[in-house]
Structures are given as C-alpha cells and as structure tokens.
Design goal:
With about 55 residues, this protein is mainly alpha-helical. It is built from 2 helices and no strands.
C-alpha cells in the first residue's frame, strides 16, 4: 500500500496506524501496539491544519 498524505484535520500517527495494515502486521494476536498505547495516554503531538474556510 502506498503511503498517502494525511488529510487535513487529522493526526498523522492515528491516520497512518488506522490505514496502513503493515504497521500492526508484526503484532501477535491480542497484543497492543506500543506506539498506539503511548499515543492514547499522551495525546496527539499535532494535527494537520485544515485549509481556511472561504465561506465569508
């Protein structure tokens, strides 16, 4: 699977871990991903900024 760019407003790590199956492929059944667990406890480092709305 080709790595795609993270959509605006999304956390790059959350998005990549949700959409790239190869990241979790090496884990055993019922084993938690250490990066995901750390991310759940410490939160998002940053979010990809959304484009400015041109509604007005």
């Amino acid at each position: 699977m080709a790595i795609r760019e993270t959509p605006p407003g999304e956390c790059p790590q959350c998005w990549q871990h949700a959409n790239d199956r190869s990241i979790h492929r090496r884990l055993k059944p019922r084993e938690d991903c250490p990066q995901c667990v750390d991310h759940m406890h410490n939160g998002h480092p940053y979010l990809v900024p959304k484009k400015a709305s041109k509604w007005w």
